[in-house]
Amino acid sequence: MRKSVFIAGVMLTVMASLGRTALKHEVFAVSAQQEPGSRVEVKIDNFSFGPAAITVSAGTTVTWTNRDDIPHTVVSTEKVFKSKVLDTDEKFSFTFTKAGEYPYFCSIHPKMTGKVVVQ
Amino acid sequence: MVRNTKDEILHDHNHDGVDRRGFLKCMAWAGTGAFCVMQGGVLKSYSMSRLSDMNPEDMKGELSFVQISDSHMGFNKAANPDVAATLQAAVDKINALSTPPEFLLHTGDISHLSKPEEFDGVEQILKSASAKDIFYVPGEHDVLNDDGKEYLGRFGKGAQPGGWYSFEKKGVHFLGLVNVMNLKAGGLGTLGHEQLEWLERDVKHLKASTPIVVFAHIPLWSVYPEWGWGTEDSAQALAYLKKFGSVTVLNGHIHQTMQKVEGNVTFHTACSTAFPQPKPGEAPSPGPMKVPAEQLRSLLGITDVNYVRGKHALAVVDSTLG
Question: Is B185 in Cβ contact with A105 (below 8 Å)?
């Protein structure tokens, strides 16, 4: 009985340390990213998205806020997401679940472009 | 007429330290209004203040109409908290013209957010204009929802399904084009194949001596591509109009007057009746430009157009609201 408890104890310790190592690995490999379920803000101002290119992990919710004095939209070029027209101070959120690159633009002022990279 | 304003930056919205007085000096020419007439292929322009020197015959026409643009009903930010009042001022200006215009052309951004009450507001104010006919083309602000359903329902009667149309007045052929739908990421205004094919058919059988007026929201020449001030496929449209001796292109979108002459084609953009925008490259972005309240009306305006049969080109006169 003691032997099996001992073995179980060793195994648990080993697994726990393996788990910790795995977690550390993740953090190092993706230093600029957010944890899944976290939120990222993009500001719309002066006819531009700021930051224009962001990298997030799957499960992140990105929120665009229009701080410009003119309305804008957030529209995915691959039609993955599309906001309604955002007047000043209005927001649009989208949760990215799948990895990939998501270029988008403002359908009113198509020269305004941005990209969300999901890892 | 340059006002002696203090050299101070009152609204540094773009945090760029741009000298607004320098800008206003440049705008003073447009602010006082310019009478432009092309005679024998040479463009002449006269300041409005010199109109008394001019031969009235040069001014009179058989057809006169007024272009207004960019009323942005619904906009209420600092650049102009009361766009209804400035639109009314434009109507008052129209009603004060010595020759009442036969009709109005509105080159788009009628509304600010494509809302029904915004369109209602504009139509209500324009009812008091001396011209009873009004022809519209949409701006990008007019087609924000459902592919422009609200705009097309109101102003698309008699037009092609996409909203473009043509009509004739006193021998002048007018083409109302739509270049604000299906805008692509990173792109400019676009006319599209269907509309271009329609345009080719529409003008095919017209005599080369027929004066042509094209009106569309976004400029049909490359004013400033960095700010989206141009139309990707306008060259094709202009190719279909090459045979005509006189082509006048009237646009809006940039909220300032600009003119360019290229062969037989005269391009002209109108002021907004709502708010001014910076000159190309003179600000980080083409947004509403805030100016001291007492100067606002001098940067908004209407465009009066006269056609005299036998003259080569239409006479285009800009005047400000104040």
Answer: yes
- Identify residues of A whose CB sits under 8 angstroms from chain B CBs: 46-48, 68-71, 73, 75, 77, 84-85, 87-88, 103-105, 107-111, 113
B17: alpha, beta or left? (left if phi > 0; alpha if psi -120 to 50):
left
Q: What is the DSSP letter of B284?
A: S
Residue of B13, B115, B183 to mutate, interface with A, max A Cβ within 10 Å = B183
Nearest CA in chain B to A105: B185
Rounded Cα distance between A97 and B174, Å, is: 51
Its pTM surpasses 0.90? no
pLDDT in tens, B26-57: 333 333 334 444 344 333 444 444 444 555 55
Q: Which two tokens stand for residue B129?
A: 């204009």
Q: Where are the domains of chain B?
A: 22-320
Facing residue for A77 by CB, picked from B13, B185, B226 = B185
Nearest CA in chain A to B141: A108
What whole-number distance in Å separates Cα of residue B255 and Cα of residue B73?
A: 14
The single-letter code of the amino acid at B220 is: L
- Contact list in B for residue A105 (CB cut-off 8 A) is 185-186
Cβ contact, residue pair A47, B144, below 8 Å: no
Asked if residue A78 has pLDDT above 80, the reply is yes
Task: Give the start-to-end residue ranges of the domains of chain A.
Answer: 1-31, 39-118
Contacts of B124 (CB under 8 A, 6+ apart): none
Per-residue pLDDT at B3 exceeds 80: no
Q: Do the beta carbons of residue B18 and residue B283 sit within 8 Å?
A: yes
Chain A partners of B141 at a C-beta cutoff of 8 Å?
71, 108
Distance from CA of A97 to the nearest CA of B (A): 23
What's the order of all strands across the beta sheet hosting B247-251? B165-169, B172-176, B212-215, B247-251, B265-269, B258-262
* Token code pair at residue A62: 């990105």
CATH code matching the domain that covers B22-320, chosen among 3.40.50.920, 3.30.200.20, 3.60.21.10, 3.30.450.40 = 3.60.21.10
With beta carbons under 8 A apart, name residues in chain A contacting B14: 46
CATH topology of domain A39-118: Immunoglobulin-like (2.60.40)
